[in-house]
Design a protein that fits this description.
The complex is a heterodimer of chains A (about 170) and B (about 45).
Chain A lengths: L1 E3 L2 E3 L15 E2 L5 H7 L20 E4 L2 H6 L17 E12 L3 E14 L5 H10 L7 E3 L6 H23 L1
Parallel strand pairs in A: 6-7
Antiparallel strand pairs in A: 1-2, 3-6, 4-6, 5-6
Chain B lengths: L7 E5 L31
Chain lengths: ~170, ~45
């Protein structure tokens, strides 16, 4: 997520898309070829519907909490000065939907519930939680509870620590 | 995100609006209509 004054806004991990707070997020096609075509004025045919099976576009969600939790760290080694924290959550998807083996991609989405991983700076996480209030959905700071998402985040964090430890030992 | 091969495509609309939109402010009550004074029969 990114900070805009005292407010915090959800941002796509992959694209620079900001999730609005008072209206649903509507998917576009961000594939390079589609974006290039959109900038060529003499091509008048509309961009394809979003999502469609033959493309990879749409707003993604997974039924696997661990896969979602992995995104708390995706590109975390890349310098992203505007990204202040990561969140994971439940989402409502609707409109056109392509259903895959382990998830969905849809044309419209809005967060249903947000979870913030714990940090040693509890005060900072609480500030971020309060700054997400504009979304009007519950925002929880994850703890050691036994919910599926809390367990998934704990497991992903543990695996990352082990991999980093193993890397230091082998290096 | 890897969600596997597409299994099916469909359209779904929510029963309730998933966006917690702010409710519009309540309309003010219209002013009480002024009643014409009743005609009192003279004595």
């Amino acid at each position: 997520m990114v900070q805009q004054r005292r407010r915090f806004r959800l941002r796509s991990v992959v694209f620079d898309t900001i999730w609005p707070t008072d209206v649903e997020l509507t998917a576009g096609c961000n594939r390079l070829w589609t974006r290039v075509r959109n900038r060529i004025a003499w091509r008048s045919e509309p961009v394809h519907e979003v999502p469609v099976s033959r493309c990879s576009c749409g707003i993604y969600a997974t039924s696997d909490p661990e896969l979602a939790a992995e995104y708390l760290y995706l590109y975390s080694e890349v310098h992203q000065p505007h990204v202040v924290y990561r969140a994971v959550g439940l989402v409502s998807l609707w409109g056109s939907v392509v259903e895959g083996e382990s998830g969905w991609r849809a044309s419209r989405a809005y967060p249903k519930r947000l979870f913030l991983p714990p940090s040693q700076r509890r005060d900072v996480v609480e500030l971020i939680r309060d700054g997400l209030a504009d979304y009007g959905v519950p925002v929880d700071i994850l703890d050691e509870s036994e919910t599926p998402i809390a367990r998934a985040v704990q497991r992903v964090r543990r695996d990352r620590r082990r991999r980093r430890y193993a890397a230091t030992q082998s290096g | 995100m890897e969600i596997g091969e597409p299994q099916r495509t469909y359209t779904v609309e929510p029963i309730e609006d998933p966006v917690p939109r702010e409710a519009p402010p309540p309309e003010e009550d219209p002013a009480e209509p002024q009643h014409e004074p009743e005609e009192v029969p003279g004595r």
